């Protein structure tokens, strides 16, 4: 999302802030200048001067403009995206957008991170998954595939005290994978805090670049899903889930194959009683 013109004229510190704001406009609405400064590792004075450098009196003036120019309700997001599309070329447009998201996601992935995440998953006594809202489907897929390899997967409740009912059992030998899109929910903060307390490894999947740093995670993966005010794609998070499954399978190749062979034997044995739907 391009919010600022002539960014090339900004100082390095102001350019860093501008990039952060453009990539996280929804979050910026709720952040103080001190929080921005802490997140980006710049002084609060640099943040305060930034608003005038880009044509606003202060942070409040910029936030007012941002709120009035973008409405992020789900209906308007979808309408904004659809209004720019031509049904005759919809498949091609979606494909091009997906390719763009995949390329951006790949540019953020560090060599060895996927293998590291796979080893954390494979070595964990139990895998806890936190995937609220639209990401629940991704967790279901990941759980289904990993369970075939013999991993014990536990789904954490999306919100409320029910979350604590499962979280209380997390121990050092376990790991937790969180999906945090658009913003970091209080529940995710609670999970990360408790995981740190019990020395359980945490892996984060997010579409927020600023969340890649400063959180108590063993690993963090960035996935591109689209800009503010637009329909958010799940193509890249889905691909990452499939990559994790395959990486775990390769890491435990013999065990994974034996589990799948056992599944095939059971299907054959009980085919007359449990026909495939």
Automatic annotation (TrEMBL):
This is MurR/RpiR family transcriptional regulator. InterPro entries: Homeodomain-like_sf, HTH_RpiR, RpiR-like, RpiR-like_SIS, SIS_dom, SIS_dom_sf, WH-like_DNA-bd_sf. GO terms for biological process: carbohydrate derivative metabolic process. It comes from Paenibacillus xylanilyticus. Residues 1-73 form the HTH rpiR-type domain. Residues 117-254 form the SIS domain. CDD domains: SIS_RpiR. The keyword Transcription regulation applies. GO terms for molecular function: carbohydrate derivative binding; DNA binding; DNA-binding transcription factor activity. The keyword Transcription regulation applies. Keywords: DNA-binding, Transcription, Transcription regulation. It holds the Pfam family HTH_6.
């Amino acid at each position: 999302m391009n919010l600022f013109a002539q960014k090339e004229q900004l100082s390095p510190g102001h350019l860093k802030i501008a990039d952060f704001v453009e990539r996280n406009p929804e979050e910026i609405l709720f952040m103080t200048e001190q929080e921005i400064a802490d997140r980006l590792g710049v002084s609060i004075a640099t943040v305060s001067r930034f608003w005038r450098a880009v044509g606003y009196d202060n942070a409040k003036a910029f936030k007012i403009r941002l709120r009035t120019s973008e409405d992020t309700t789900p209906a308007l997001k979808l309408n904004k995206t659809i209004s720019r599309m031509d049904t005759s070329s919809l498949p091609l447009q979606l494909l091009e957008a997906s390719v763009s998201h995949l390329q951006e996601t790949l540019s953020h992935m560090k060599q060895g991170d996927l293998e590291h995440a796979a080893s954390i998953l494979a070595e964990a006594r139990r895998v806890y998954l936190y995937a609220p809202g639209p990401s629940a489907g991704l967790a279901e897929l990941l759980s289904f595939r990993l369970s075939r390899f013999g991993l014990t997967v536990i789904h954490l409740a999306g919100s409320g005290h029910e979350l604590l009912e499962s979280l209380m059992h997390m121990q050092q030998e376990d790991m937790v994978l969180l999906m945090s899109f658009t913003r970091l929910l209080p529940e995710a903060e609670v999970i990360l805090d408790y995981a740190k307390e019990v020395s359980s490894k945490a892996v984060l999947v997010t579409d927020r670049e600023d969340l890649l740093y400063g959180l108590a995670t063993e690993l963090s993966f960035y996935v591109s899903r689209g800009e503010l005010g637009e329909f958010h794609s799940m193509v890249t998070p889905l691909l990452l889930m499939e990559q994790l499954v395959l990486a775990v399978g390769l890491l435990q190749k013999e065990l994974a194959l034996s589990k799948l062979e056992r599944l095939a034997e059971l299907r054959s044995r009980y085919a007359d009683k449990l026909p495939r739907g």
